[in-house]
Write a structure and sequence with these properties.
The protein has 506 residues and is α/β, with parallel strands linked by helices. It folds into 3 domains: 76 residues, Archaeosine Trna-guanine Transglycosylase, Chain: A, domain 4 (Roll), CATH 2.30.130.110; 145 residues, Rossmann fold; 229 residues. Helices cover 29% and strands 19% of the residues. It contains 15 helices and 23 strands. The strands form 6 sheets. It has a 7-stranded parallel beta sheet with strand order 19-20-18-17-21-22-23, sandwiched between helices. The chain has a 4-stranded antiparallel beta sheet with strand order 1-2-5-8, with no helix packed on it. Strands 13-12-14-15 form a 4-stranded parallel beta sheet, sandwiched between helices. Strand 10 and strand 11 form a beta hairpin. The mean pLDDT is 94.
């Protein structure tokens, strides 16, 4: 470790503490820490006047709310939001992507319709919360126990599992946009390439009628469906659904992996439990991996619109067209109206954990979060849970809450998830495997059973962002080929299914 701080841009007025700094620790030539600076937090390297813009990454992250002396801790007590002009400069930085000549492959599952899966699950979806328990009872019959080794699917080694994906809505809602959004999400999972077969369970009297779901989303013939009331209650529905799974297990097990192009990968980019290191290590390293995948013809999906707020002008410059860039700006205006209606503020996004980790404003978090998407062109902007059809870097509108955001990305077609975390996360996302990327070595060591890759090596001076990105890219390929992630070792990923609930609950 060469220095006790990290400088991200030569013009920045702050640097980042690699570890906790005690008073007197050097932070810049002629500048020492004037107080204790927690690990991952910011310290001023020059005097900042009240109202002056504070820069990190060479970009504005906030404004001094009072005079800040050199060596002072810069955080929520002296740094806040403020207005500043953004130049969207649509497509100004868009450049042709240098595609890789090497034809890389992974060992994937080619479905009859030509799509490629990374996992092979049987899914149990629910139209409404009222059928959630019944769905769970069905899945429990086939549940593997990662601790005892009990495996009801031992005779079907090519089936990754039977998973129930339940939710808290489906009724007590209007039949406008809230219902359309839920149905779009459920349909994305019903069609997901990582499911060989799907059954949808309903109660029978809910707003989200299964017949309407099948007709609106054109799912007839794609899924089996059952209503508890029509089936005659819990026991008969469970027996029928269990019989359905037994009926399709042999067919599901017939799949075989084969070499397929890396371009078939669609990767959801996620972060949760972020800290001051997220935008320094794991996020830019994932961005480097994203660039590698895009240059091999693959697709990455960035989301979490509220966590792009304030930095969207950097993405509009990379938009492949003005139309695509304007879609992103339109999302920001919608979110401003949406949060105003709910009595919230877009600039109040960082969670208590984010703030404890060193993130101060939504601008700071956004700049670090968008690093996950690398540097290639923004090819398209889509709504929540819409199918992603463009190749390359795509943005999906989602909330910042990671289970809801990841649910939308997987509904849109992501067959792999990469999830960066600084505070620690135990997230899974069935039917797609989730790779966990730790931003710092202490957390990686503390939660090694849950973390797949340590990106703290960048902070420790052991490798560059590009070298870490190469490691992530290689793990993407291994995971897509069937290697289990840490979250999969604990069978995580069923309970985290969380469709975005908008509108009034009636």
């Amino acid at each position: 470790m060469s220095t006790p701080v990290i400088r991200l841009h030569p013009e920045d007025g702050v640097v980042i503490a690699r570890a906790t700094l005690l008073p007197g620790a050097p932070v810049a030539p002629g500048v020492a820490a004037a107080e204790r600076i927690p690990a991952g937090h910011k310290v001023a390297v020059r005097a900042l006047a009240e109202g002056e813009a504070i820069h990190r990454y060479g970009q504005i992250i906030g404004f001094a709310t009072r005079p800040i002396a050199p060596g002072a801790h810069v955080h929520v007590h002296n740094c806040g939001m403020g207005d500043f002009a953004k130049d969207y400069a649509y497509s100004q930085d868009a450049r042709p992507t240098a595609m890789a000549n090497e034809k890389l492959t992974f060992s994937g599952i080619r479905r009859p319709d030509g799509r490629v899966a990374t996992r092979n699950y049987i899914g149990i979806l629910t139209s409404v919360n009222c059928s959630a328990h019944v769905a769970g009872l069905v899945a429990d019959v086939f549940k593997r126990n990662p601790f005892t080794g009990h495996d009801p699917l031992a005779a079907y080694p090519n089936v990754d599992g039977v998973v129930a994906l339940t939710h808290k809505t489906g009724c007590g809602m209007t039949d406008g946009e809230p219902l359309r959004l839920l149905r779009r999400t459920l349909a994305g999972y019903a069609r997901h390439v990582n499911f060989s077969h799907v059954v949808v369970l309903g109660l029978g009297c809910e707003v989200n009628q299964i017949a309407g779901l099948l007709e609106e989303q054109r799912l007839a013939g794609r899924v089996r469906n059952m209503d508890i009331q029509a089936m005659g209650g819990t026991r008969k529905t469970v027996e029928a659904a269990v019989a359905f799974v037994h009926e399709v297990l042999a067919e599901s097990n017939e799949v075989r992996r084969e070499p397929v192009p890396v371009s078939e990968l669609v990767v959801a980019l996620q972060c949760g439990g972020s800290d001051g290191y997220s935008g320094v290590s794991a996020n830019p390293a994932l961005g480097a991996a994203s660039d590698l995948l895009v240059r091999h013809g693959g697709t990455v999906i960035l989301s979490e619109t509220p966590e792009t707020y304030g930095a969207e002008h950097l993405l509009t410059r990379r938009a492949v067209s003005q139309e695509v860039g304007e879609k992103l700006v339109g999302l920001m205006r919608w979110w401003e109206d949406y949060t105003a209606r709910e009595g919230a503020e877009m600039n109040a996004n960082p969670s208590p954990g984010n703030k404890a980790g060193g993130l101060t404003t939504i601008l700071e978090k956004s700049l670090g979060a968008m690093a996950k998407a690398g540097s290639t062109n923004l090819m398209d902007v889509v709504r929540y849970a819409e199918p992603v059809t463009a190749r390359g870097f795509v943005f999906m509108d989602t909330p910042g809450y990671d289970p809801v955001a990841a649910t939308g990305q997987v509904a849109g077609g992501a067959n792999l998830v990469c999830f960066t975390t600084g505070r620690g996360s135990v997230f899974g996302c069935k039917p797609s495997p989730s790779i966990k990327l730790a931003t710092n070595t202490p957390m990686f060591q503390r939660m090694e059973d849950d973390m797949d890759i340590n990106c703290g090596t960048i902070l420790d001076g052991e490798e560059t962002v590009q070298e870490c990105g190469q490691r992530i890219f290689e793990m993407m390929i291994r995971t897509a080929s069937g290697e289990r992630t840490k979250s999969e070792s604990f069978d995580a990923g069923g309970a985290e299914f969380a469709p975005w609930v908008i509108g009034a609950t009636m």
